[in-house]
Amino acid sequence: MTILCLIANPADPALDSTLVAAIQHETGGEINWLHQRIACEIHSPKAQAPVGVARNVIGRRAVDAALVSSEGRRKQVLVADMDSTMIEQECIDELADAVGIKAEVAAITERAMNGELDFEQALRTRVGLIKGLERRVMEEIRRERITLAPGGRALIHTMKAYGAVTSLVSGGFTFFADYFAKRIGFDEAIANVLEFEGDRLTGTVASPIVDKATKLRRLQELAADRNLPMSATMAVGDGANDLDMIKAAGIGVALHAKPHVAAEADVTIDHGDLTALLYLQGYEEEDIVR
Question: Which of 42, 57, 71, 215 has its CA 20 to 30 A from that of 202?
């Protein structure tokens, strides 16, 4: 059985019963509310392409539509990207801002996340440009300029409460990933290691590089370790580095993603926050750990 999920951002609860009824009129199926004005699902829609039908009805309203299977809906493995997914910034761009070259580095970041540049080469180039940056400045940036993406803690704590394992796998840096993984509640963090000489960056990053292959491999390993099929996994990210794991996961979510990533993902969330991943799995409001 398939389920059509309709999800709004909790900060802008744009989903109402009139809109849901209009969608259900076009798709058929049975309505079930998960959270009033934020998340609703339509069980067994009859329309051939229910997501497209729903989006036509939704129009410009800030509501996402996605189709999922009812079988094994609650996932037991989650692998998440960090930058612009679990946090709201790109850490390398914020580091570059401290040495006055944010625009230059951000342009490289954008091209890398769009899949226009080789990831490892782009990463090493950007790290080279911030050579000499002091650890104390990096700590200040981490503390004062990086913000958690809304819904992240609820997502991780809820999935863990229901038995899932959660992994933060980032093409960014352990300096940030280890710190934010603990704050959010992840079981583990995997990221690239910046190299220091004394208290200053050397402009180099240790090998091997954490890239798209690492992300996919960790998703597969976590499933295999628990004797789970890939259908029991979930992955979320926004950039080219995340696409392989997104496409391999049971539910792969392109969250506020680059256009070509969103185009290739089965599930896209353009408006909702990270709690959208819980509603995709059928969690109701009273199930969510906040």
Answer: 215
pLDDT digits (tens, 9 = 90+) for 241-259: 999 999 999 999 999 999 9
Query: Does pTM top 0.70 for this prediction?
Result: yes
Catalytic pick from 64, 83, 93, 238? 83
148-185 per-position pLDDT tens digit: 999 999 999 999 999 999 999 999 999 999 999 999 99
Radius of gyration of the chain (CA): 20
Please give the pLDDT value at position 260: 93
Active site residue 83: yes
Q: What pLDDT sits at residue 87?
A: 98
**250's tokens:** 């049971």
Q: Are 124 and 191 in contact (CB under 8 A)?
A: no
In order of 24, 44, 64, 83, 290, the CA distances from 180 in angstroms are 40, 39, 27, 11, 17
Which residue among 12, 16, 64, 81 is the active-site one? 81
Rounded CA gap, 267 and 244, in Å? 14
Token pair recorded at residue 198: 């004394």
Residue whose structure tokens are 């992240």: 152
Nearest CA among 183, 228, 193 for reference residue 78 = 228
